Amino acid sequence: MEIPIFVVISGSDLYGIPNPSDVDIRGVHILDRELFVKNCIYKSKEGEVINKMFGKCDFVSYELGKFLRELLKPNANFIEIALSDKVLYSSKYHKDVKEIAKNCICKKLYYHWRGFINHLQKFHIDAKNPKICLYILRAYYQGILCLNTGNFKSDFNSFKCLDCYDD
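RE: above sequence
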């Protein structure tokens, strides 16, 4: 049995651009003692990631250790999950995970955004898909805001403070 630490809304809904096809819900959990010990002894990854679809809800929860390893890389997607302000469930440990995520905001995130944007431009530019264009725009703005201010904001209105943002 997994014990949840927090569950949040992520993805396009977090940025105020709802996707009619699904809602991304992300969470972090702790494994119960028995499964934790089993994973340690047998180097198993059972329960490390839980994927479930509930109608239009795409639910993914990460085991705390895996989540923290991703935060420390640093990985902007996991920082975004930890700092999401659209919280569906929060335990007393959520605040601690948020503090760790805030401390992972650094210049190394530039490489995450650059790789994400390059991937989208390389493989999806011919599609002329507005969703891809929004992903690229979001990554540019998020990277500029985060690296200039040290703040990780997750909605397009937050980007208005940037000199490069034009209504």
